[in-house]
Amino acid sequence: MNAFYTDRFELPLPAGHRFPLQKYRLLRERLIEHAVPLKLAEPDGIPDEQLILAHDHRYIQRVTTGRMTEAEIRRLGFPWSHQLVERSRRSSGGTLSACRAALRDGYGANLAGGTHHAGYDFAEGFCVFNDAAVATRILQNEGKVNRVLIVDCDVHQGNGTADIFRDDDRVYTFSIHGENNFPLRKIASRLDIGLPDHTEDEEYLQALRIGLNQAIQEAKAELVIYLAGADPYVGDRLGRLNLSKAGLLARDQFVFDSCQAHGLPVAIAMAGGYAPDLNDIVDIQFATIQEAARRLA
Predict the structure, then answer these.
(1) CA 38 – CA 27 distance, rounded (Å)
(2) CA-CA distances (angstroms) from residue 16 to 13, 153, 196, 261, 284?
(3) pLDDT tens profile 30-83
(4) How far is CA 109 from the centre of its chain?
(5) Interatomic CA distance for residues 230 and 225, integer angstroms
(6) By the 8 A CB rule, do 102 and 108 touch?
(7) What pLDDT does residue 11 have?
(8) CA 198 to CA 204: how far, in whole Å?
(9) Which residues lie below 8 Å from residue 194, measured CB to CB, with a gap of 6+?
(10) DSSP-derived secondary structure for the chain
(11) What is the distance between the alpha carbons of residues 214 and 194, in angstroms, rounded to a whole number?
(12) Which of 156, 161, 159, 241 lies closest to 205 in space, CA to CA?
């Protein structure tokens, strides 16, 4: 299986910043250590002429030239830097590469990505460019796919993805998330399942079964982009749901089984994970990639 990494592009963050960037490097190192059968590669960055397929050109210009407003920087949650722009381009490139691998082999993975709060003309919640949206638009523009299903299992609702595709019936956006969690103002996906705080494994999996079956039937997609967030975990400091590691693996297995049953290739993005112990995040995301790789062994 092909997997793509961007972790060498470290961001200059102020002391005490709460985003755990190290998780990306630790995940890649864990995969290498355990000899998971992967071909690891660093993706290219996405140029402006392709970003514009998913984002407003004025927004792209503000981001790339460092002219984001103070309000935009606060909403993003990261200070602006050249490294931020390059990493965001390559994170989108990672998901595009994962999609190409999935269309060829059945599965592909971006060891980062899942930047689902970035909308058509706004950054939010650590998300600059929406990697799933950029990859989808590029593949549609190339004629590689027409209909895409985005399955968003991050604990936070995928408002940016919903914003970009709100008027495009070729892209089916499905988000299962904590109803009372960020973002406060949600933008409706094609299908949203908002769960109460403290939802545990069985209740989550039951809701996922219903939602994913509906999404697959209605989407009539040729490709699935799966945001496999680690943040529904009971130990996540931003999650507010109570899934176990076993429950999250069962989630992944159900998504993969359902897509496989319908002949759908799956491109995986890691999305969120904010557990105080980074090993918990890596455990969850490692299990996701290992499960996908096992199916191609």
Answers:
(1) 13
(2) 8, 28, 30, 45, 24
(3) 999 999 999 999 999 999 999 999 999 999 999 999 999 999 999 999 999 999
(4) 10
(5) 16
(6) yes
(7) 83
(8) 10
(9) 157, 177, 178, 179, 180, 186
(10) -EEE--TTS---PPTT----THHHHHHHHHHHHTT-S-EEEPPPPPPHHHHTTTS-HHHHHHHHTT---HHHHHHH-S---HHHHHHHHHHHHHHHHHHHHHHHHSEEEESS---TT--SS--BTTBSS-HHHHHHHHHHHHTS-S-EEEEE-SSS--HHHHHHTTT-TTEEEEEEEETTSS-SS----SEEEEEPTT--HHHHHHHHHHHHHHHHHHH--SEEEEE--STTBTT-TTT---B-HHHHHHHHHHHHHHHHHTT--EEEE------SSHHHHHHHHHHHHHHHHHHH-
(11) 15
(12) 241
Tokens read off for 242: 């109570």
What is the rounded CA–CA span in Å between residue 217 and residue 97?
26
Comparing CA positions, the residue from 218, 259, 264, 216 lying closest to residue 103 is 264
Which tokens belong to 5?
């990494």
Residues constituting the chain: 297
- Which residue reads 């103070």 in tokens? 70
Q: Enumerate residue ranges in the chain where pLDDT < 50.
A: none
Measured distance CA(294)–CA(297) in Å, rounded = 5
Instruction: Please name the residue that has the structure tokens 């002949």.
Output: 263
